[in-house]
Design goal:
mainly alpha, 67% helix, 78 residues
Length: 78
């Protein structure tokens, strides 16, 4: 398991919740891509999340938005 460090927040419970949400959003994208017959590459996953995040019609919790942003940053290197 790859552990993404979230030391900057300093709140262990929030860090754990954020990490779990990051894993959930990545897992969802990977499974959806598999169902569509696409190979889940890290840059493609980041692109899917970036596109999804840009859709403001979908209500997301602040935790989910933060998790998606951190995953995009971690996978794309930006």
């Amino acid at each position: 398991m790859i552990k993404y460090e979230l030391n900057s927040m300093g709140n262990k419970a929030k860090d754990d919740n954020l990490y779990q949400e990051m894993c959930r959003v990545v897992g969802k994208v990977v499974l959806e891509m598999r169902d569509l017959g696409q190979e889940p590459k890290h840059i493609v996953i980041a692109g899917v999340l970036r596109t999804s995040l840009a859709n403001r019609k979908i209500q997301r919790s602040p935790l989910t938005v933060e998790a998606m942003e951190k995953v995009i940053h971690a996978l794309s290197g930006h």
